[in-house]
Specification:
Helix content: over 70%
Oligomer: single chain
Protein name: RNA polymerase sigma factor
Number of domains: 2
Order of helices and strands: HHHHHHHHH
Number of strands: 0
Number of helices: 9
CATH architecture of the largest domain: Orthogonal Bundle
Strand content: under 5%
Largest sheet: none
Distance between the termini: 34 Å
Length: about 190
Amino acid sequence: MNTPGIKIKETILKAKQGNQIAFSALLDTFWNDVYGFQLKRTENENDAEDITIQTFSKAFDKIDTYDEAYGFKTWLIAISKNIHVDLIRKRKRNVLGADGNDEAIKSVLDDAPSAEDQLIIKQNLAALLQHIRKLKPHYQEVINLRYFNEMSYAAIAQELNEPMNNVKVKLLRAKKLLAEMIKSKD
């Protein structure tokens, strides 16, 4: 018998080994929990989404440090709380004129086409462009830079002045949303 807790532990183990499908499954499983938590805290959809993206970015980068004595959702929520606190501090510093620098985050997700990539590739370009236009602007931007401008993750990160993991998580989320739109039309 495969209980959800055992399945999550297996998925985390695969993610620790660098499996992109495992990262994607964890994102799918816990996105709404982290986003909902941050939406209540920030009362701002954009901030909640940005913090959630940064949470998964940091979690995927630091997945080897995850202690299985704690729930994975609890770990993600703790990361998101810290990011939110950091965001508030950074905004206060910026108001005071100080400037904070983000440190570079190393790559965790590989470039192998996922199921979402394959579904997106199969779509008629005109229909795909209609779907892309329905995404939030920051998701449209990463999709356009990656697939239409054929930029690398590193180049996109530099273009957007964001850590590479944020770009990867945004792209992963954008592809999931696009795939859901495409599937709902079929």
